[in-house]
Amino acid sequence: MKNALKEKILVLDGAMGTSIQDYNLKEEDFRGERFKDFHLKLKGANEVLNLTRPEIIKEIYNSYIYAGADIIETNTFNGNTISMADYDLEDLAYEVSLEGTKLAKEVVAEYFEKSGKKVWVAGSIGPSNKSISIDSSEVGFDELKEAYKAQIKGIVHGGGDILLIETIFDGLNAKAALIGAEEIFQEEEKSLPIMISVTVDKFGRLLSGQTMESLVVSLDRESVLSFGLNCSFGATELIPLIEKLGEFTNKPVSIYPNAGLPNEIGEYTETPEEMVEVLKGLINNSKINIIGGCCGTTPKHIKLIAEEVKNKKPRPLREKELKFMVAGNEILDYDGFLIVGERNNVAGSRKFARLINEGKYDEALEISRKQVRDGAHILDLNLDDGLLDSKAEMEKYIKLLLSSTDTANVPVMIDSSDFEIIERGLKNLPAKGIVNSLSLKDGESEFIRKAKIVKKYGAALVVMAFDERGQADTFEKKIEVSKRSYDLLLGIGFSPADIIFDTNILTIGTGEKTDRDYAKDYIKSVKWIKENLPYAKTSGGLSNVSFAFRGNNPLRSAIHQIFLKLAKESGLDMAIMNPAEKPVKIKKSLEEKIYSLIMNTDDVLDSLLEEQIEKITTPKLEEKELTPREQIVENLVNGNKLNLTSLLDELLKEHSPITIIQDILMEGMEKVGEYFNTGKLFLPQVVKSAVIMKEAVAYLTPFIKSGAVDKSNKKKILMATVDGDVHDIGKNIVKTVLECNGYDIIDLGVMTPMDKILNTAKAENVDAITLSGLITPSIHEMARVAQKMSDLGMETPLFVAGAATSSLHTAIKIEPNYNGNVFHLTDASNTVITLDKILGEDTKYKEEVLETYEKLRKAYKKTEEARSYLSLSEAYEKREKIDNKVNIPSKTGVFDVKITLEDIEKNIDWDIFLHDWKVKNTSKEEEILGEAKKYLEVLKEKKLKIVGRYGIFNVEKKSGDILKINDLELPMVRTQQWKDSVSLADFVEEKDYIGTFVVSVESITGDTQYEDIMYNLLGNRLTEAAAEYLQEKVNEVIKVKIRPAIGYPILPDHSMKKDVFDLMNVWELGVKLSPTYTMSPIHSVCGLLFFSENARYFNLGKIDDNQIKSLAKKRGIDFKTMKDTLGIATY
């Protein structure tokens, strides 16, 4: 394969998941005979298909091979034990990986016999659903490594040619997979080349914050074949990043992008031709070695890619440059002298030791952050203390360092005399750190054993000049031990550029004759190492040299200053030292005496001690501390409440409370907004910052005189959820972000009458109005408000947002009817950008948006003119002829379901919850998940009230798609745009059964806005989980096939909610329904239950006015009301 990579660009296959989806498989396909009675749903567990539908997986493999792929990936992406545990199938991780690989090998062998072409099988290893570098992760390094090993062993035993560790979003996960692979290779005495592929944001960072360059530095080794990028984006966005990665690494690089960016409904729409057109530059300019496709790509994409790369030269490979390089989230690529911060050492800093012992980690972290501010390039971390669980503390503190951007970017030097503590540290370090230290004191075999472990984790190594005879204290001993250690390390394949020698900076000036050459011999040994041990680095603990003069800091600083100068001249690369130590002024005569002390040219100790009191002067510089203003701004950015009130008290001594709020606190919040908009902070952090801001304002409020607040420089925004809608979670999130960006918000809450919106807007003279809503009738209320604003001659910029809204609806239904301008908003980040530009009078941006709306209107009109509708009678005639078997329930009637939080917890879809928080696949994912589960425990203690009720009724199907339950007639909507028309009524026989349901979750409010948002988002997920649980209970009576909720596209008539309420007397459960059909509590849902095996969800599309008139007649309401109630189905 290495030879092939030198000759041509290799083609990787496309998306496995997309191909599986195209088969439209059912639950039964995943279960097969083997899992027929399995207790959990298996649909989505794609790896199980290796066992239950192997012929489909082989078809997919073949489709990519015949499209021209040189490498095909196995269907094993989630084949580790942790991911498989989501389906209670962790014991099958090895088997599904084995069988998925064997199927691939069978296919490529058959293809080779026919064509003579070699195709390689790459065992796909996904990232798992955990992020172990996050502090709240419940899974550790060893557990994840073992999870991967079961998968990797299956791939190896199945005959895989390559391992592909892909879609990496956490460098520590990747390290666990890589080390797990190498352990399997050792056990099986068989090695495979390993491809590494990362998913990054637009800045080239993993979702854990690590740069792709840092990941390469941290994982690069002999077993790694290539580095690359996949997923994240389409080719357009990934090309600049892969070019940058190609310039950084000497290994082959791979790219397999998505088929463009997903559209509004999550579909990838970039055609094969479009994708190849984008990739041509990369291919024709020889900047890539391996190329394929990820999400949304098909055999057609791969076929065109394979055709394009024919006879094209691959990216040339260069020799690896031997160079010292370590990393935090960012690489340390610096050729100058390196400062290793010494203050995170429980033995060397009493303050740090006290804070760790007292569990005051935020204050301890501030010591680390200050060292970085003071110029430390690397942080030394030592937690060796007999009173501490040092292994646990090492793990905890490394994760703490990773949680703060400034310390996370800096490499860590793990410092311990206990190798178990060192290894615990290495297991928690995503990037390439340094181990301090190993020595020969326990003999060569132990030295080699430990060095191999350090090498396994990819760390650099400090070697102490210490052997079986003890510490090397003379020049001869120092260089002898160093040379011996160097040769041993090279013998096990350790890179010479990763070796750092510490030949012992020992204390001078004690008065003993034995110590007089210590400093001189150290400096000489540094020079010898730089001349005789190629690529090796040198280091030392600086403060040791002056320890005899403790208590006399000016003299110690002077000794350090001159010692460093001499050592650097001899080639010293780094020193463990206090980065905040200030230089001192030294007279020439004193400098000569210190030089004599260090180099032992004269006995100057007595005269030095006599003279230093008079002659040494230090500049009167206070230790660099952040001012209260700087500290509070930094605390706001970091969501840190440490010393909030004391900092405010300090500021009040010099500033008025108004100045503090409008100037100092807003400076911090503006930074929060800036970092959020550029992807450096995530929504949960923004909310926490806003909570601190509110606490600060609340503390300052009593100090403010009446009328003292000047808000004239702030833009004033009125926000309201429109009448008939009680949903405000999205509005609350946007409100928080806008406040962080300096806007003055007037929040009118939910169910806001139109007159109240307009009267408040006038009275407050607002700069903009934002209207939000979740349910379909809300978009019609927004249009009504816009029309009324026009009637009143208002031109205030109007912004609309919420799940019910869209750019298309805004362009067609609202913007043309308003004198002013209307803008559609999508999310919090988009809101800030749009408001800043519109209210900042960015005329170009405004014109671009309005031009886009005009294009949407024209395209819509053109589409409408070209759109062909079946008439209602034609649609009925062309309906799918479905033969539904009538399933008989064991009972009919209305039944309550007792639901507890404990019952439904297993059904919670945490992926959607994380997406709602805007942290899915980010470094904050595990943290927010951990917090959410704590809030869930609070809700359990509160005995959260959840109600559920369902009904099973006899139903008659009448002509015109009417379902009749008792005396109630419910007309179903029928598709009119497709060749084969379909309606929910098609899944019901003339005499049949139908179900209705309602679930509702009690609304909980928190003490802070952050808690409010957390409870609201949890409420959304709990409602859906409760509906699933209710369906499980109905299944005991009659099996439910689909559960459409009223108001969603397939069942768009919101007014049917009242029918369901009346049928089951839902009112007595305490659930209410507004005149516009909004349910409360807000976390409520109701709908219908269909039992036919043929029932399915489908795309309704648009219906014409004739069907709307027909529905209005059947429902006994006027045409306009019917059209408004149907919402999106009408445009």
Q: What distinguishing features does this structure have?
A:
1131 residues, alpha/beta, TIM Barrel, Methyltransferase, Methionine Synthase (B12-binding Domains), Chain A, domain 1, 5 domains, 8-stranded parallel sheet, 42 helices
Write a short abstract of this structure.
This protein is of the alpha/beta class. An eight-stranded parallel sheet has the order 1-8-7-6-5-4-3-2. Strands 19-18-15-14-13-12-11-20 form an eight-stranded parallel sheet, covered by helices on one side. The chain has 42 helices and 33 strands.
Mean pLDDT: 89
**Shape summary:** globular
Percent helix among the residues?
Answer: 40-55%
Question: In CATH terms, what is the architecture of the largest domain?
Answer: Alpha-Beta Barrel
Tally of extended strands? 33
Given helix and strand content, the structural type is: alpha/beta
Which regions contain 5 or more consecutive residues with pLDDT less than 50?
612-623, 706-711
What is the CA-CA span between the terminal residues? 55 Å
Biggest β-sheet, characterized?
Answer: 8 strands, parallel
Task: Provide the CATH topology of the largest domain.
Answer: TIM Barrel
Q: Write down the oligomeric state.
A: single chain
